[in-house]
Automatic annotation (TrEMBL):
<dbReference type="InterPro" id="IPR015590">
    <property type="entry name" value="Aldehyde_DH_dom"/>
</dbReference>
<keyword id="KW-0520">NAD</keyword>
<protein>
    <recommendedName>
        <fullName>Aldehyde dehydrogenase</fullName>
    </recommendedName>
</protein>
<dbReference type="Pfam" id="PF00171">
    <property type="entry name" value="Aldedh"/>
</dbReference>
<feature type="domain" description="Aldehyde dehydrogenase">
    <location>
        <begin position="26"/>
        <end position="441"/>
    </location>
</feature>
<feature type="active site">
    <location>
        <position position="216"/>
    </location>
</feature>
<dbReference type="InterPro" id="IPR016163">
    <property type="entry name" value="Ald_DH_C"/>
</dbReference>
<dbReference type="InterPro" id="IPR016161">
    <property type="entry name" value="Ald_DH/histidinol_DH"/>
</dbReference>
<keyword id="KW-0560">Oxidoreductase</keyword>
<dbReference type="InterPro" id="IPR016162">
    <property type="entry name" value="Ald_DH_N"/>
</dbReference>
<dbReference type="InterPro" id="IPR012394">
    <property type="entry name" value="Aldehyde_DH_NAD(P)"/>
</dbReference>
<comment type="similarity">
    <text>Belongs to the aldehyde dehydrogenase family.</text>
</comment>
<dbReference type="InterPro" id="IPR029510">
    <property type="entry name" value="Ald_DH_CS_GLU"/>
</dbReference>
<dbReference type="InterPro" id="IPR016160">
    <property type="entry name" value="Ald_DH_CS_CYS"/>
</dbReference>
Length: 471
């Protein structure tokens, strides 16, 4: 809970929302710029605290913190600063034929007071990233970081308190109960990042007030390695995408479908890539400072249960499957011989475990992907353009990466979001701005012959007019 005020989440909402009508008028683009610049400075000044907090929460490697937590937020801020003038511009639109004699414009207005609920796995990027969009749009916001990364949540609160006025942004720390109390309030927009299970709870709560939502969810993101893939490059990219953050990434490659004719050389490349990045032996990997730890004992037990149940049903570990409970370490693990009856093929893995599943016919892979919930990302490793395009067209997913994994997240000119079970709406850059913005159409009459639309209708003038315009 916010320790400056000892107020309940509901009271904090009321404070923010009550101050908001005036703020909406006063919070002009110049003030949004100043707020974004202050946020950027505070993140820069708190770098040591950020590194320490994420190391404390799950031993996240420093380089990964810089690349996947600090960089995306700073990049989001500089992108917003560069484009704010264009985004906030009132756009005039031409009258359509039936609207001759009117003047129309689209006015981007802040939705009002927003709620941002974040997960633990990229605690900084997924709370402050959406906050950048909210500020750019001119919204006041409450940020609720995850209770599962408490040191990170405390730093997020510190950064926001240092950088932003309390009547604009508040951080409310706490778990499920705090989250639910916040969800009971009539926010103007809710931006939620987390699991599809909780996404449904959020959407149901939002429905009570008809609050709009952006839902950034998860699920199983498949990889297809086609017969024409550059195996060395594919293996490195997939291993990095999977084992960065110890696999605790919403867009991590969840499992790999590999063309049978190249399965053996691909597995050899995968093993070599893991050895190259994290160490050749089990001991070297356990000592590597480039592997994060599992967030808590429950998730550690869940993942080890997945590995062990798969193994006892006949799956084999090409590498990994070793662990140390005390430090919540799980070695980079590649599983072969899994099947759809196993949990590892059914649930989002969200850990350093990679099933590799051979296929004869790409059509079977497409059928499997299409039979399941729509993934957040689909990765295709292949050089044959025709096959790449066929796979892309035959499947539906939040995003597609071709010969690449993860990094579409860093591209502010691309909308980031899911479809169906993997999410609603989009984040980043202009799309993030629009999530917190109401595009308000304003239509002014100048000399449109609108009296013709009015009764008495019998003269047939209306019908003739309609015919003319619809032609
Ligand atoms: N699409 C994306 O951008 C993205 C990014 C990161 C993570 N994710 C997904 O998030 C999930 C992992 O994160 P997580 O474990 O923190 O998710 P989660 O859904 O358990 O929790 C997310 C947030 O919701 C709150 N919460 C949890 N239960 C709640 C309830 N019953 N009512 C109200 N609020 C509740 C938590 O306090 C937390 O702040 C994975 O499924 C992952 O794929 C998606």
């Amino acid at each position: 809970m916010d320790h400056r005020s000892f107020k309940t989440p509901a009271q904090i909402f009321v404070d923010l929302a009550e101050g908001n009508p005036q703020r909406r008028m006063a919070f002009d683009p110049a003030q949004r710029r100043a707020a974004l610049q202050a946020l950027s400075r505070a993140i820069h000044d708190c770098e040591a605290e950020i590194l320490a907090a994420l190391a404390e929460d799950f031993a996240k490697p420093e380089a990964e913190i810089r690349l996947t937590e600090i960089l995306p937020v700073q990049a989001e801020i500089s992108h917003a600063l560069r484009h704010l003038k264009t985004w906030t511009k009132v756009r005039r639109v031409r009258p359509t034929r039936a609207m001759l004699g009117t003047r129309a414009r689209i006015v981007p207005e802040p939705k009002g007071t927003a709620l941002i609920i974040a997960p633990w796995n990229y605690p900084l990027a997924l709370s402050l990233g959406p906050l950048v969009s909210a500020i750019a749009a001119g919204c006041a916001a409450i940020v609720k970081p995850s209770e599962l990364a408490p040191a990170s949540a405390a730093v997020i609160a510190q950064i926001v308190e240092e950088a932003l006025p309390a009547d604009l942004v508040r951080v409310v720390q706490g778990g499920v109960e705090v989250s639910q109390e916040l969800l009971d309030q009539p926010f103007d927009h809710i931006f939620f990042t987390g699991s599809p299970r909780v996404g449904k709870i959020v959407m149901a709560a939002a429905a009570k007030h008809l609050t709009s939502v952006t839902l950034e969810l998860g699920g199983k993101s498949p990889v297809i390695v086609g017969p024409g893939a550059d195996l060395k490059k594919a293996a490195r990219m997939i291993a990095w995408g999977k084992f960065a953050n110890a696999g605790q990434t919403c867009i991590a490659p969840d499992h790999v479908y590999v063309a049978k004719q190249i399965e053996a050389p691909f597995l050899a490349e995968l093993k070599a890539a893991i050895a190259r990045m994290y160490g050749k032996t089990e001991e070297a990997q356990a000592a590597s400072r480039d592997l994060a730890r599992i967030i808590n004992p429950d998730h550690f037990a869940r993942l080890m249960g997945m590995i062990e149940s798969a193994q006892s049903a006949g799956a084999k570990a090409l590498t990994g499957a070793t662990s140390e409970a005390a430090s919540r370490y799980i070695a980079p693990t590649v599983l072969m011989g899994t099947d759809p009856s196993m949990r590892v093929e059914q649930e989002e893995i969200f850990g350093p475990v990679l099933p590799v599943i051979p296929f004869d016919d790409a059509a079977d892979v497409v059928a499997r992907i299409e039979a399941g919930p729509k993934p957040l990302a689909l990765y295709i490793f292949e050089r044959d353009r025709g096959l790449i395009d066929r796979l892309r067209r035959a499947t539906s997913s939040g995003a597609v990466g071709v010969n690449v994994a993860l990094v579409h997240y860093l591209h502010q000119n691309l909308p980031f979001g899911g479809i169906g079970n993997s999410g609603v709406g989009a984040a980043h850059g202009h799309w993030g701005f629009e999530a917190f913005t109401h595009l308000k159409p304003v239509l002014e009459n100048r000399f449109a012959p609108l009296a013709m639309l009015m009764p008495p209708y019998r003269s047939g003038r209306m019908a003739k007019l309609a015919q003319k315009f619809l032609r």
